[in-house]
Amino acid sequence: MSKNLPPELRGKRFNSISDYLKEEFGKKTIKLAIDGGFTCPNRDGSKGSGGCTFCSDTGSGEFSSDIDDQIRLLSDKWPDAAYLAYFQNHTNTYAPVEELREKYYSILKDPRIKGLVIGTRPDCLGDEVLDLLSEINSTHFMWVELGLQTIHEKTAEKINRCYGLDEFDEAMNKLRSRGIRAVVHLILGLPGESHEMMLESVKYVASKPGLFGMKLHLMNLVKGSVLAAIDPGYVSFPDIQTYVELVVECLELIPPSVTIHRLTGDAPREILISPVWSFNKRTILNSINERLNLLDTWQGKKAEL
Q1: Is the Cα torsion angle 164, 212, 66, 271 positive or negative in sign?
Q2: Residue 171 pLDDT exceeds 50
Q3: pLDDT per residue as tens digits for the range 137-153
Q4: 110 CB-near residues (< 8 Å, 6+ apart)
Q5: What is the average pLDDT value for the chain, to the nearest integer?
Q6: What is the 3-state secondary structure (H, E, C) of 23-41?
């Protein structure tokens, strides 16, 4: 292991959220995926219809289920774990604020739940919603996840994102001003994006003041998505090695203080179309670690700090 690793990396090659949470709560901490029953403004017609072209008809919530069922399944392996409730699929701030209040606090009443993770869009963070999030953030552990996917407007139009980069910038500023942790999603391998375009998105997000975390998601083509209907033969990356090499480049550009929440993306085999190798999550993650060691590199080695 290199002697030049920044202290934020805790002696590892990248700053994983699992390590951060273990330090925060003193134990293994697990996110429980919850379906809050929300929709999106680019599904219900207010901004668009059909949703983002890469998104499944569940709003990418294939792994959400009942809290009790999830804890029951996990308790044998981690009997003393802490849990965060993760409002995952669709847009989880897209509802009247009183409905949001009821749903958030009904989950927080469960003594097993130590905090909230709320997945949303930058254009669904009005002042009333932000007031509610600030209120919760003052008494509970929380972060908000923004699905940006790319900084490139042409790609955003192709994937039917239905909001602009300026709205993302504004949302990040508002979250930072209120002291709310922000995690940003990027998708690697979107149709039409070059290697350099993906690195540009990483650089842009990584430079945001107050950024708490990042998710790098492998572009999976799944059944039920618009993209599968219009381009059923699309493959984001030809093989694991090509993807792994890109991820390592991305990590080098991200400051070591930023927590890493995802380095790949897995979809249930029954809906996965491509890449066919993407369900080998453990192989992908092991290969990323192997390459980091091989190159003696780490998160933030080439970041503009």
Answers
A1: positive
A2: yes
A3: 999 999 999 999 999 99
A4: 67, 85
A5: 94
A6: HHHCCCEEEEEECCCCCCC
- Number of residues that make up the chain: 305
Q: Side by side, which strands form the sheet with 113-120? A: 29-34, 82-87, 113-120, 141-149, 181-188, 211-218, 259-262
Tell me if 277 sits within 8 A of 244, measured CB to CB: no
Per-residue DSSP letter, 121 = -
Tens of pLDDT along 21-77?
Answer: 999 999 999 999 998 999 999 999 999 888 899 987 754 545 556 888 899 989 889
Instruction: Using alpha carbons, select from 186, 261, 262, 191 the residue that is nearest to residue 221.
Output: 191
Greatest Cα pair distance in the chain: 54
Could you give all domains of the chain from N- to C-terminal order, each with its CATH number?
A: 13-219+256-265 (3.20.20.70)
Q: Nearest to residue 14, comparing CAs of 256, 281, 285?
A: 256
pLDDT at 65: 67
Q: How many CB atoms lie within 10 A of CB 238?
A: 10
Beta strands in the chain (DSSP E): 29-34, 82-87, 113-120, 141-149, 181-188, 211-218, 221-222, 259-262, 272-274
Burial (Cβ within 10 Å: 0-12, 13-18, ≥19) of residue 35: middle
Span 100-114, pLDDT tens digits: 999 999 999 999 999
Q: Which residues pair with 32 in a beta bridge?
A: 85
Query: Mean pLDDT throughout 263-274?
Result: 92
Are the C-beta atoms of residues 271 and 224 closer than 8 Å to each other?
yes
- How far apart are the C-alpha atoms of 221 and 214, rounded to whole Å? 21
pTM over 0.90: yes
Q: Which residues of 52-89 are buried (b: 16+ CB within 10 A; e: fewer)?
A: bbbbbebbbbbbbeebeebbeeeeeeeeebbbbbbbbb
